[in-house]
Design brief:
Blueprint: E1 3-9, H1 16-23, E2 29-35, H2 41-47, E3 55-61, H3 69-77, E4 86-89, H4 100-105, E5 113-115, E6 118-122, H5 125-133, H6 143-146, E7 149-154, E8 157-161
Parallel strand pairs: 1-2, 1-4, 2-3
Antiparallel strand pairs: 4-8, 5-8, 6-7
Organism: Sodalis glossinidius (strain morsitans)
Pfam families: Glyco_tranf_2_4
Protein name: Glycosyl transferase family 2
Length: 172
Amino acid sequence: MKIFAICMVKDEIDVLEKALEAALPWIDKIFLIDHASTDGTWELIDQKFHHWDKVEVYGQITDEFTDGFRSRAYNKFRQQAQEGDWWCRLDFDEFYIDNPREFLAKVGKHYDIVQCASFQYYFTEKDAEEYQRHPERYRDGESINALKFFACNSSEARFVKHRNREWKEDSL
């Protein structure tokens, strides 16, 4: 079983590297799409991530946004996947608390979609005080380790089992 991810970013220079590094241990390949970033994200992708073995850069898209952009990367790279492999919608600001590879290996063969449980972290007054004392704990994507209060209040499809089909951009 392989896990392929499609990650679309826009102006995420502050968290992109940490997000990609967090996914690398469990992912086989990340297909990266930049959607018209203006903060240096595209330049970082081109200069650094373009050369990572597990990252394949789809390119930069400047059209008006649609979720269907992910279908472009899927259709371009789908021949790398086989039956039984999984595709992940990897959002740049989401970090998995469990290893998806271990979890997906236990999913029954009759299931082909896995939903996520999204935990929203909140910056409280206590966090503001702590930030004033130790701002370094909240820089360079480290806030994920510093924030303690959260709610689990949403769920979306994050993994789908590979089927060798074309994905139409307007079919979402």
